[in-house]
Amino acid sequence: MGKNNPRLKKTIAFVKEYRHLICMYIIYALALTFIFSQNSCTPNKLKYRSLIKGGKVYVTIRVTLYATPECYYCDVARGFLKRNQIKFIEKNFDDPKDRQELFNIADKIKFDKKNLDGVPTFVFETKDNTSIIVGYSHAELLWILKKKASIKKGFLRNKDFLIDFI
User: What pTM does this model have?
Assistant: First the structure.
């Protein structure tokens, strides 16, 4: 492998020409590795290990989805919940009765009703607390499900709010 090797010359020319892209790719890969190792971006499903029975994860969260029929992100949210086999209750945000129910939940947990201006809106209820998420964010939904799942194992006995997460 001397200086006259044509493959070596091509490789060196390639690296010289695209060195900035190669460096950016390496930095990007290192940043992603750091983010995922900290579990601050996308939660890892393996964190549910203590709740696994028979290859399925059991989490007791009642999920209510407030949506409208013609909303694209509402369809995406429904798809996310169905794909992950999460049982949920769907309510129509345009219905005044359902919207008032959402506002009552927001008052109960001191959530600012001014922020309830969009769909889809998720309400996550466990035995101990309630959370509201306005809008669809895949990472945020996984994070809230992970957080709620790790609250208490004793609440798993209640079959009413069973989520089959894997």
Answer: 0.55
Query: Count of domains in the chain?
Result: 2
Distance CA(33)–CA(24), nearest Å, equals 14
85 in the same domain as 24:
no
Structure tokens at 98: 């359902």
Residue 52 maps to which CATH number?
3.40.30.10
Q: What is the pLDDT of residues 42-56, one digit of tens each?
A: 333 333 333 445 555
Cβ neighbour number for residue 149 with a 10 Å cutoff: 24
pLDDT in tens, 104-161: 999 999 998 888 888 999 998 877 778 898 988 888 887 777 766 554 333 333 333 4
Give 92's DSSP letter. Answer: E
E strand intervals along the chain: 52-53, 56-60, 62-67, 88-92, 121-125, 130-134, 162-164
| R_g (Cα) of the chain, nearest Å | 23
1 domain-assigned: no
Residue-range definition of the domain harbouring residue 78: 45-164
Instruction: Compute the distance between CA of residue 134 and CA of residue 158 in angstroms, rounded to an integer.
Output: 27
- Answer for the pair 51, 58: CB distance below 8 angstroms, yes or no: yes
